[in-house]
Amino acid sequence: MSPQPPVYLVDDDEAVRDALSLLLRTYGIEVESFAEPCAFLTGLDRRKPGCILLDLRMPAISGLQMQERLLARGCNWPVILVTGHGDVHACRRAFKAGAVDFLTKPVDEQALIEALHAAFRALQSSRERAEAQALLARLTEREREVLDMISRGWSTKEIAGALGISPRTVDTHRANLAEKLGTTSVAEFVRLALARDERGGTAP
Amino acid sequence: MIVPSRPARTTLALVLAWVVLVAAFTALSVRSAVDRAAVEVDAMGRSLHRLVSQRAAQHDAHLTSLSALALATRPPPLHEIDQVAATILRFYPRITAVDLLSLPGGAGAPDAPAVLTSTRSPTGNAVDPIATATAIAGTAPGATTLIATDAPVGRYRLAKKLPDSEGRLALVLEIDAQQLFDGEERPVWAALTLSTGDRTIVALPATAGLGPAAPSWLPRPHFEKALGSPNQPLLLRLERPLALADLVAPGPFATFAFASAAIIVLAGLLMRQRHMAKRARLAAAEAQQRARIREHEARLAHASRVNAMGEMASGIAHELTQPLTALLSQSQAALRLAAADAAVPSAVAEVLAANVRQAKRAADILTRLRAYVSRTPPRPAVCDLNALVGDVAALARIDLERRSIILDLPAGAPAPLAWVDPVQMEQVVHNLVRNAADAVETRPMGDRRVVVKTEVRGGETRITVADTGCGIAEDVLPRLFEPFFSTKADGMGLGLPLCQSLVERFGGHIVAANRPEGGAQFTVVLPLASGERRAEAAE
Ligand SMILES: Nc1ncnc2c1ncn2[C@@H]1O[C@H](COP(=O)(O)OP(=O)(O)OP(=O)(O)O)[C@@H](O)[C@H]1O
Ligand SMILES: [Mg+2]
């Protein structure tokens, strides 16, 4: 696994920011905290992809509004909303807008860490999907067809028969695929082929 | 001036109406009575005139034949004249005397006029030859003159200067004018006069007692015409004096007066009853309206109390949650640090663990508190925000008027429908209006204005509450929605946070801003009620 992504903590209360940062750092998680959403949003393009820990109710823009702005800017980094109120409506809206989790204050250590790990996993998989898609983008139409058939478990002969080409040509395509995708493993081929059908990306 | 009460005015109007009705009836019956009388008089007058004219014409004929006789010989045959005259007197009793006069001035005539011969009926009078001669002095021979001045009462004389060349003779008839009418059926009402010039010769009053006479200003039906004989310029006048009883028949008059009075009284009663019924209806409607407003007020006040308490509790909870979050997280962090460092005594770890437990316990208490106050779930429905704003305005108006604040509701968007709990939404508008009213109160009288309007824009409905107050200070703006934040001496600082949390329950939000022309403006933005919601509400 690549090094753990950072957590961006947005909360208007300084004591809360300090305490949560301290706690997360004891888990070896990198934390960057912001007193207000705007400060975070302005530098968004320069930041490493990470997980956003967002207080629901803040002056100026609320957590929900900020979540909407992130989406508007094409940023789908996972968001965990934290609230002082057990507000069901806000919670429902947050999930609709794609929040990963919804925690109430005071935040329990266990719940927080679990939510963060889930968020990291989501971030990781979306990043992988993006990579796979970048790789697949380099394939020719014919190579994509061959990859498709391989991932369905077809043999070289069967592929040659289906496409009406010689088995040698199929082998050449396989070699090209191995080179372009950086792997010879059929399992990897399958994973990448599946990624093609999904949407995703990590770019803000 | 004393303005009579409404029932008194009505009574007065009814009595007046009755008087007018009776007067109209009277006028109508007088008019028809006068018309009838006029027709009657006219018919009677014509037949009388024809008769009297014929009779008068006979006098001319007698004079002509007597004059022919008188001129037959010279001197005139007095004896024959007497005989003829006696016959005339016998057959025409209204002619009471026939005289032949000699006039002075003729050749061989005496110097003074004298009576040559005279034939008289028992009522006939002697003629004064001098006066007669004077009366006809200037007339041409053959002319006939009517002499009334010299005649006894009720009579006139006809003097004819005989057409001999010298003009020395004159024939004079004395006529009892009253007998001109004799033998004629005269109605009892008829008043007759016969006059020449301005001298009345006969006046026969109506024979029957008429009872009280009609007022003198009424037109008197009469007939007036000169007799046919040119030698006798006599004017016949027939008049019908009107009695009150002729004008207005007492029976029908009384019947009409009574019947109309009865109808008017009935109408009055009916009107009065209708009036009372209307008053009762109005009073009932007013009472109902008052009750509705009171009930509405009570509901809003109750919701305000409940929600303010909830907001207070949740404000406190929020305030406490923050330090509690810090406390818990810090303790948990410290616990982890202590576990990683063997040098930290285990007692410290135990203390830290106890802190964590206490912080969680406090958090539980807060959760229970929140759960307790948020037990009244909203009851949303499709609401027309225009109606809602109107209701709030109706409630707030009295208070605002007392504070000389003008509340303006410009015609808003047509049917801005939102899916909200009406009572809670009213509370939101009410709070915003109250804040606006507080803000404008420091302004001079004419400038205290609060404008509430609605709008539909891009799938959203908006309620805007704008005021002409002093606006929101730069340092207050970011803290507006913070619980317990207030710049007012008696402010709780819960109004706006409450509004915000209520509006958020329905998926909306509130935007606060200063208006460029001065004053603040709060905009409640709510999603427009969706089609299916509306359909649901319509069912
Ligand atoms: N229309 C306005 N114009 C200017 N300032 C306003 C306006 N509305 C609110 N404010 C400011 O916001 C503050 C908070 O308002 P809020 O309604 O929350 O509390 P409050 O009115 O002070 O007290 P209460 O709990 O009785 O409503 C006010 O004290 C005032 O300073
Ligand atoms: Mg207020």
Automatic annotation (TrEMBL), chain A:
Keywords: Coiled coil, DNA-binding, Phosphoprotein, Transcription, Transcription regulation. Residues 6-120 form the Response regulatory domain. InterPro entries: CheY-like_superfamily (IPR011006), Sig_transdc_resp-reg_receiver (IPR001789), Tscrpt_reg_LuxR_C (IPR000792), WH-like_DNA-bd_sf (IPR036388). It holds the Pfam family GerE. Residues 132-197 form the HTH luxR-type domain. The keyword DNA-binding applies. The modification 4-aspartylphosphate is found at residue 55. The keyword Cell membrane does not apply. Gene3D superfamilies: 3.40.50.2300, Winged helix-like DNA-binding domain superfamily/Winged helix DNA-binding domain. PANTHER family: DNA-BINDING TRANSCRIPTIONAL ACTIVATOR DEVR_DOSR. This is Response regulator. It comes from Chelatococcus albus. The lineage of its organism: Bacteria, Pseudomonadati, Pseudomonadota, Alphaproteobacteria, Hyphomicrobiales.
Automatic annotation (TrEMBL), chain B:
Keywords: ATP-binding, Kinase, Membrane, Nucleotide-binding, Phosphoprotein, Transferase, Transmembrane, Transmembrane helix, Two-component regulatory system. The chain crosses the membrane at residues 247-271. This is histidine kinase. Its EC number is 2.7.13.3. It comes from Chelatococcus albus. It catalyses: ATP + protein L-histidine = ADP + protein N-phospho-L-histidine. The keyword Metal-binding does not apply. One of its GO terms (molecular function) is kinase activity. The lineage of its organism: Bacteria, Pseudomonadati, Pseudomonadota, Alphaproteobacteria, Hyphomicrobiales. Residues 315-530 form the Histidine kinase domain.
